[in-house]
Write a structure and sequence with these properties.
This protein is of the alpha+beta class. It has one domain. It is 29% helix and 11% strand. It is built from 3 helices and 3 strands, in the order αββαβα. Strands 1-2-3 form a 3-stranded antiparallel sheet. Strand 1 and strand 2 form a beta hairpin. The longest helix is centred in the first third of the chain and has 12 residues. The radius of gyration is 15 Å and the shape is elongated. It starts with 7 loop residues before the first helix and ends with a helix.
Length: 95
């Protein structure tokens, strides 16, 4: 799979709009569709993520980010929702 097989701009847009992150702020995980923040958040007082409202989750943590591609090919069939994840995961494994 090549970098052209997924829409890098859509992934970047999703990260910036929904999570206020850049692609370099997350790393691909082994679970399809999930990324992990590279740097832990500041913890409950500054972060604002709902998980910090649960007991014993006040400390800084590396949150996960979920992203899927929702596209169809020329014949109308759905393409794999994990295209972006798979391309970036294969790039990581090749290093």
């Amino acid at each position: 799979m090549t970098e052209e097989d997924f829409d890098a701009a859509a992934f970047e847009w999703h990260l910036s709009l929904y999570h206020r992150l850049k692609p370099e702020d997350v790393e691909v995980t082994d679970v399809p569709g999930y990324w992990r923040m590279v740097i832990p958040c500041a913890g409950r007082p500054e972060c604002g993520q709902p998980i910090h409202l649960a007991m014993f989750n006040e400390d800084p943590m590396k949150h996960t980010v979920y992203y899927l591609d929702h596209d169809r090919d020329g014949s109308g069939r759905f393409l794999s929702p994990y295209r972006t994840w798979r391309a970036l995961w294969e790039r990581r494994e090749a290093k």
